[in-house]
Write a structure and sequence with these properties.
This protein has 4 helices and no strands. By secondary structure, the protein is an all-alpha fold. The radius of gyration is 25 Å and the shape is flat. Helix content is 69%, strand content 0%.
């Protein structure tokens, strides 16, 4: 990832702070596991219940789709939490993967599985926004090129002959 990886660095957290970070990560993991278990129990209850009219069926489909999206998000979050716990065990926790500088305590309290310092996170978000903007411009250009080619091939102009 970052240039610093050849230079091992350590964040300087107290044992109390490290214990706090670990407790936060483990609490997050526990809450996600409980949420997943609750959704699974709810799904089992839905499967047992008779399916009603088409409105019930459509509502159930939306709930299943939402459950799938939540499970995907939860899986990603669980992976981030597991990785953060691994970094804690390895003494690598709290170091930005991009620049190698320590991640701020406030940031880690707010997002204990953060892998980037605030500056690098903002730069990454800015790059992502620029990439998204470029993609939208490319899509728009392709749309207009397609529209022009359709109009030139006897498209909408033919409908408005005088």
């Amino acid at each position: 990832k970052g240039w610093f990886q050849s230079m091992p660095r350590k964040a300087t957290f107290s044992e109390k702070q490290l214990a706090e970070f670990r407790a936060n990560l483990e609490q997050m993991r526990k809450e996600i596991q409980q949420s997943i278990q609750a959704r699974l129990a709810s799904k089992r209850d839905l499967e047992i219940k008779d399916i009603g009219d088409s409105f019930d069926s459509a509502s159930e489909g939306r709930e299943q789709e939402f459950g799938y999206l939540m499970n995907t998000r939860d899986r990603e979050k669980m992976m981030k939490i597991a990785d953060a716990l691994r970094r804690l065990d390895a003494g690598e926790y709290g170091i930005c993967e991009e620049c190698g500088e320590p991640i701020g305590v406030k940031r880690l309290r707010a997002m204990p599985f953060a892998t980037l310092c605030l500056r690098c996170q903002e730069e990454e978000e800015e790059m992502t926004a620029l990439q998204r903007e470029r993609q939208l411009e490319e899509d728009e250009q392709q749309y207009f090129e397609l529209a022009e080619s359709e109009l030139g091939e006897g498209g909408m102009d033919d409908d408005f002959e005088e």
